[in-house]
Specification:
With 168 residues, the chain is α/β, with parallel strands linked by helices. The protein has a single domain, classed as 3-Layer(aba) Sandwich (Rossmann fold), CATH 3.40.50. Helix content is 38%, strand content 21%. The termini are close together.
Amino acid sequence: MSLVLVAYAGRHGGTRQIAEVIAAELGGTGLTVDVRDAADVAGVEDYAAVVVGSALYYGRWRPEAVRLLERNARALAERPVWLFHSGPCGPDAAGRQVSLPPNVALLAARIDAERTATFGGRLDPATVRGIIPRLFAAGRRAGDFRDWDRIKAWARDVGRRVRTRVAL
């Protein structure tokens, strides 16, 4: 049995990379961790704690992450859960805290999730599709705005909290 699940949803790999760094930091606190695409998570019953993250697109979570929360709401309510999202891009990305989308906020309240973290995103002009994303990617929002030190610190804090709340 793995102790902690880190599930992620995104399109271009940026959120997956964040999830992998979170998992590595959790592992560094002595926890056993699985990292999985949210679309591949059938259930959370085998986990003592869960971290779920999604890329933000136009203020919305990816549907795979929302479905994971919906399908597993009862089981998630019985264990500690942390949420994060990534997406703000541009010079002010590091300091921006973005509220959960309303549908995810309702699910977070239902499962009694811990405080949500917002991490800067990555906007690579080579990977975006569509006219509007390309317009964003051509301007000041293009680049990698993920603050790895902040992400690692948040993950270590989650690890400490898991270790105090869960019988290992």
